[in-house]
Amino acid sequence: MKPKDIENIELKFLDLKDYQELKTTMISAYTNMPDSYWKEHHIESLINKFPEGQVVIKINGQLAGCALSIMVDYDAFEDDHTYIDITGNYSFSTHTKTGDVLYGIDVFIKPEFRGLRIGRRLYDYRKEVCENLNLRGIAFGGRMPNYSKYSEEISPKEYIEKVKRKEINDPVLNFQISNDFHPTKVMKGYLDGDAASGEFAILMEWNNIYYKKPSKKAATNKRNVRLGLIQWQMRSYKDLDELLNQAEYFIDAVAGYRSDFVLFPEFFNAPLMAKDNHLSTPEAIRELAKHTEAIVQKFSEFSISYNINIISGSMPEIKDGRLYNVGYLCRRDGTMERYEKLHITPDEAKVWGMQGGSQIKAFDTDCGKIGVLICYDSEFPELSRLLADEGMDILFVPFLTDTQNGYSRVRHCSQARAIENECYVAIAGSVGNLPNVENMDIQFAQSMVFTPCDFSFPTNGIKAEATPNTEMILIADVDIDLLRELNEFGAVQNLRDRRKDLFELRKR
Predict the structure, then answer these.
(1) Is 0.85 topped by the overall pTM?
(2) Helix, coil or strand: residue 105
(3) In terms of CB atoms within 10 Å, which of 9, 270, 387, 449 comes out highest?
(4) pLDDT tens across 14-32, in order?
């Protein structure tokens, strides 16, 4: 049939009244497998057990194609299962309402309707069912009817590789791969009597990127996340309490917009060094470090009382007699995590005698996994890639830059991190000046939220941006599920396409 002859296409649930036409369609579809058609009691059983899993496409009132499926507890089966195993010897006793995988039993298209991409509609329907039922994914054993032509020359594994390289044309396997199914295993003896495939089959799988593992806890894992960035004005404070009052003011403002995170800049507490300006710069910053414990404790209290996750920017901290640049993630459940600046700038080392940290890891939150890189660390792509390998969705970069060229390095490197790691990146810095604090006298900043550059995101990769050099808050919403779609269906796939056969990146 040609497209111009089509008057109507319908996707419908399979009805037992369709059986005789279904039988005729199946016989015509499997001419190389005589008597391979479902008996009426099989169809009746499938409809009774799982009606939404059995669908047909009708064109101009004629049955053109069909898809049959069940739900199974996939871990109950080995990867080298047979068709008889998965169907319970054709009884479909393996179907269970508590199953976690949609298993494809059959898909067939009547020959005169092939070429109209009916199969794609049936596969798309299965994906919708999988997503709606919150299943892990779809699996099925794909036949290899063309393999018989090459079975004496190459193994099934070699056959698959040649098909993927387009050296052999296999319309079935090509179709399945083009519909986002990936081959995971060659199964021998899968379908008894399938001589054309040599009784081999390819275990094909599709992962549901929206799957959420059922939780027994009364907790949430948010997918739409609101970020609050503080573009902090450097100003004089008479004491720590006054600085904390200003910090609480911003936390209150951001929490008022129901933000999930608030991000402070690097060394936002530097104004407290003004009273120690008579000291040498190494002594002054060590005096500042004495406030860190109290600030972190107060921030943890704020995170609980304002129901917001606080990323404290960074502060100097003395540990085992050495000076570090560190920050804390204060979760709204009361727990805390510490992160360190790993790459110290030449100025920090020369003027303050600061040391680089030694720990990098992604942190679990109620809004997914996050990472934090302090300022200069954002300019080292290996760090964010390690975090991406741990599942990071959002990267936070608190920074402090005095010149526009210093800011540009952080800004452009952070945007690159969003693209190459398929994640969101939020950067926040300080503005203004501190004439009474040596080595911290002037600031330049424009806080931003970056995204990957693909169809679901802004074309320039900028979700939100603050006014340069102005004290303000910046609020932006980010959708974690869009990252999952990008990972699977992006125009380019930076993480998936890495040549791991040529290189590897790992932590020591």
Answers:
(1) no
(2) strand
(3) 449
(4) 999 999 999 999 999 888 7
- For residue 26, report the phi and psi dihedrals to the nearest 5 degrees: -70, -40
Residue 309: phi, psi to the nearest 5? -80, 125
CA distances from 508 to 356, 360, 374, 386, 417 (A): 16, 11, 20, 11, 22
How many Cβ atoms sit within 10 Å of the Cβ of residue 370? 25
Nearest to 272 by CA among 234, 323, 329, 321: 234
State the sign of the Cα–Cα–Cα–Cα dihedral 314, 317, 319, 323.
positive
368 membership: H or E segment, kind and range: strand 368-372
Q: Is the pLDDT of residue 4 over 90?
A: no
Going by C-alpha positions, the residue among 189, 181, 211 that lies closest to residue 107 is 181
Q: Which residue has the tokens 């040529």?
A: 502
Q: Indicate the length of the chain as a whole number.
A: 508
Burial of 180 (0-12, 13-18, 19+ CB in 10 A): middle
Dist. CA 19–CA 41, nearest whole Å: 10
HSE-CB at 101 with a 13 A cutoff on CA atoms is: 19
Angle at 485 between CA 382 and CA 213, to 5 degrees: 90
In the chain, what is the straight-line distance between the N-terminal and C-terminal CA atoms, in Å?
61
Short-list 94, 194, 108, 184, CA closest to 144: 194
SS3 for 127-165 is HHHHHHCCCCEEEEEEECCCHHHCCCCCCHHHHHHHHHC
Residue 464 in tokens: 């939100």
**Dist. CA 479–CA 456, nearest whole Å:** 10
User: Nearest-CA neighbor of 99 among 135, 66, 47?
Assistant: 135
The answer to whether residues 414 and 450 touch, using CB atoms and an 8 Å cutoff, is yes
Sort strands 315-319 and 322-330 into parallel, antiparallel or unpaired.
antiparallel
Confidence check: pLDDT of 217 > 70: no
Tokens 């299943």, residue located: 135
Q: How far apart are CA 62 and CA 1, in angstroms?
A: 12
Q: Write down the residue that tokens 């080292």 correspond to.
A: 380
The Cα 163–Cα 156 span in angstroms is 11
Residue 491's nearest CA partner among 455, 451, 450 is 455
Q: How far is CA 358 from the centre of its chain?
A: 26
Q: Could you give the angle at the alpha carbon of 71 between the alpha carbons of 137 and 68, nearest 5°?
A: 95
The closest of 376, 460, 380, 443 to 410, measured between CA atoms, is 376
Cα–Cα dist 68/103, whole Å: 9
Q: Are 481 and 223 a contacting pair, CB within 8 Å? A: yes
The Cα 136–Cα 73 span in angstroms is 10
Task: Give dist(CA 438, CA 72) in Å, integer.
Answer: 67
Residue 70 has pLDDT above 90, yes or no: yes
CB neighbour list of residue 249: distance below 8 Å, 6 or more residues apart: none
Q: What positions carry a catalytic annotation?
A: 266, 341, 375
